[in-house]
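Subject: complex prediction, re-run

Hi both,

The earlier run crashed halfway through, so I resubmitted it with identical inputs.
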Amino acid sequence: MSKPASLSDEAYQALVAQKQRNKESLSDVILRFVPRPIRTFGDLEKHLENLGGPIIVDYKALDRVRERKRKKERAD
Amino acid sequence: MFVSESERKNVLTDTTFWIDLLEERRENRRGGASAFIARHRTHELYVSVITWGELAEGFEDYRGLEMLLRGIRVLMLPQQIAWEASRIQRELTEGGGRLGENDSWIAATARAWGQRLVTRDKAFERVPRLRLARY
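This time it finished cleanly. Structure:
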C-alpha cells in the first residue's frame, strides 16, 4: 500500500541525490534514513538481530550506573 | 483495580533492564531480559528520558546509543510527571524510605501513563499503585 506525499523541490532533490542506484525508490531512501519505529518487544527483538555491527558500550560505566542505583536502594 | 488490555500490554522499561540486556548480548546468553522480550513480543515498550540519560553514561559516542535506541519511543517529563514524582516521594516519606531521584522520575512516568514498569530493582516495590513486570 502506498500513500501520496508532497515535498518541496529542495527536499525532493535532496532525496533523489541520496539514491544509491537507479532502481532504488524514494521510499527505500527514506527508510534508510528514518528509523522504523520500535513499538513492541517483537520489533525490538528484530532490531537487535539486524544491528549492522557491534554496539560499542562502556560496560564499566553502565555497571557504575547500576551499582549507584542499588546503593541508593540500600541507603533507602 | 481494573486494568484494560491496552494498559496491561503497555510497559515502561527501566534502566537496569537495558543494562542487563546489553550484558546478555555481549555474553551471547539468554538471560532474564532476553527471555522477557521473547515472552512479551506483542507488548508495547517505552523508555523514560531518565533511562535514556542513565544509559548514555555507557556510551562514549552518541551514535552507539542512537544505534541501540533509535526508533524507541522516549517519554519526556511534563509537569504531570513532576507532580506524580512529588506524590511518590511524599507517600514514601510517610511510609518510610524515599526513592533515589532518578528512580522517582521513572516510577512517576510509569504511574502517570498507567504503564507497568519492567524492572528487577526491589526499590520500586515500595511505590504504591505502581504495577511491576518482573523478569
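Chain B touches chain A at residues 15-16, 19, 22-23, 25-26, 36-38, 40-45, 54-55, 57-61, 64, 67-68, 70-73, 97-100, 102-103, 121-123, 126 (CB under 8 Å).

- K.
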